[in-house]
Amino acid sequence: MAQSKSAEILVAGGGIGGLSAALALALKGRRVRVLEKASEFGEIGYGIQMGPNVYPILERLGVFKRMAPHVVYPDALVLADGITGTELSRINLGPRFQARFNHPYFVVHRRDLHGSILEACRARDEIALEASKGLAKFNQDGARVLVSCEDGSEYEGVALIGADGLWSPTRAAVVADGPPRLAGHYVYRGLVPTEEIIDRRYLDSMVIYIGHHLHLVQYRLRGGTVMNNVATIESVRFQRGEPNCGDPQELEEIFAQCTPRVRDMLRYISRERNWVLHDRDPVTNWTNGRVTLLGDAAHPTLQYLAQGACMAIEDAAVLAAEVARHGDDFSRAFLAYQQQRMNRTARVVISARFFGHFIHAGGGARALRNELLAQRSPDEPWEADWLYKGIELPE
Ligand SMILES: Cc1cc2nc3c(=O)[nH]c(=O)nc-3n(C[C@H](O)[C@H](O)[C@H](O)COP(=O)(O)OP(=O)(O)OC[C@H]3O[C@@H](n4cnc5c(N)ncnc54)[C@H](O)[C@@H]3O)c2cc1C
Predict the structure, then answer these.
(1) Which atom of ligand 1 is nearest to the CA of 49?
(2) What is the 3-state secondary structure (H, E, C) of the chain?
(3) How confident is the model at residue 6 (pLDDT cuts 50, 70, 90)?
(4) Given a cut of 70, is residue 240 above it in pLDDT?
(5) CA–centroid distance, residue 97 to ligand 1 (Å)
């Protein structure tokens, strides 16, 4: 028997995107039920970068003030050549940056961000949160959506938002475009106490060492007490169709080109687990009637612009505004939301691929890359205007 909560909007997935959507909808007076597949609502224990484009949304959701004590504001974004160690370019993130984009760039532990959104959701009577509820399938008619979960339970709602991530079963039903694209890029992470960091020249900044088929990012979290380290490789074995792509040995092999100072930083990286990167070619429709997608389910991107979660949070704000504008006409609301989000998110996906290619350049392309980076102005990062100036936030 379906558990009848007919005026509820159902959200599949309680990650950053799904919870932001639930909160944004609740603030517009909507009742929402979040169905999360995992046995607990949570996030992995590493950092995340947040552009100035999401700051006003997190403020409006009442999330920023909850996580503010944990947030770190790096003083600059530095790109350095991993082979020589030389600084290639920097974007200062101080007052001029904040004046240009109206808001700061910040970094935060994923659990502090997700935990703050979760806490804000728990404080709202309009939101019900259920763990161990993996969406298995759904049906819709003109008035409602019926969701069946993997454990056999059923939920009825007036609409369904698939915020169920990269492998979204909601997407499989709505877009039916098969699995995401395997990029052949692999990520290793590590979080260590800041006092363990030997090379301390960029302690207050966010630094990215770039090399052929690799980069390594470092920034501090949690009041500066811990250092987040992320090493990414573009697997050569993957390109050649060989086995053991992106394994710890290949990580070492690709980083062997780096200056000893950078190579040594692999000591901060855990080899226990890696993340296999995927994205998708942008599509022109991720909505079907009363069902739509959000975040990675709709437009998964490589992380090279550090904007996947930012896009999910922007999605949530636009979606809630369109639902508020269209009353109970969810089909129209969802199409209007999609229309506003399609090209911006497609630009992030395509630009992230390009930027990854650019920073991972080798040979002659590396020389060109370094020359172009040297021409960047530290205080006039105009090339980020389209992204960091953000979206117009409807009331
Ligand atoms: C290495 C790396 C670095 C990144 N760095 C940044 C960064 O600095 N800044 C940034 O903005 N973004 C970054 N991203 C991207 C960001 O992590 C994602 O875009 C973001 O987490 C997507 O959020 P989401 O809620 O859409 O999906 P997810 O976080 O994947 O959440 C989906 C949720 O749905 C649940 N779920 C899955 N299947 C079902 C089901 N059948 N039913 C119900 N629930 C289900 C999952 O358990 C999960 O909780 C990075 C990504 C990577 C890989």
Answers:
(1) 8
(2) CCEECCCCEEEECCCHHHHHHHHHHHHCCCCEEEECCCCCCCCCCCEEEECCCCHHHHHHCCCHHHHHHHCECCCEEEEEECCCCCEEEEEECCHHHHHHHCCCCEEEEHHHHHHHHHHHHHCCCCEEEECCCCEEEEEECCCCEEEEECCCCEEEECEEEECCCCCCHHHHHHCCCCCCEEEEEEEEEEEEEHHHCCCCCCCCCEEEEEECCEEEEEEEEHHHCEEEEEEEEECHHHHHCCCCCCCHHHHHHHHCCCCHHHHHHHHHCCCCCCEEEEECCCCCCCEECCEEECHHHCCCCCHHHCCHHHHHHHHHHHHHHHHHHHCCCHHHHHHHHHHHHHHHHHHHHHHHHHHHHHHCCCHHHHHHHHHHHHCCCCCCCHHHHHHHCCCCCCC
(3) low
(4) yes
(5) 28
